[in-house]
Amino acid sequence: MRTKLSFQAWLDEALIHMPLREALFTFAVAAEAAAIELPQPDLGDVFLAATARVYNLTLVTADPQLLTCSWLKTLPNE
Fold first, then answer.
1. To 10 degrees, what angle do helices 27-34 and 43-54 make?
2. How far is the CA of 20 from the CAs of 12, 66, 72, in angstroms?
3. CB neighbours of residue 36 within 10 Å
4. How far apart are CA 24 and CA 46, in angstroms?
5. What is the pLDDT of residue 1?
6. Which residues make Cβ contacts (< 8 Å) with residue 46, sequence separation at least 6?
7. Which residues are within 8 A (CB) of 24 and not within 5 positions of it... i.e. 6 or more apart?
8. Distance CA 49, CA 33 (A)
9. Which residue has the higher pLDDT, 77 or 1?
């Protein structure tokens, strides 16, 4: 029987197997966010899209609004 881990223990274990790098909120991300216009304005979507563009990342999302942005690299999370 497996013992249930605390969230912190689970996170520590997960990060050993899959290290992450943070995409910092920088002036470049803020400037990119200021230029983004979405049909349904959602500040979270804007910041995610701006961060992905500045860091040249592919955004994995189920959000149809972001998936239809031709200027954003996306991958559907189905």
1. 120
2. 11, 23, 22
3. 17
4. 15
5. 60
6. 33, 36, 38
7. none
8. 8
9. 77
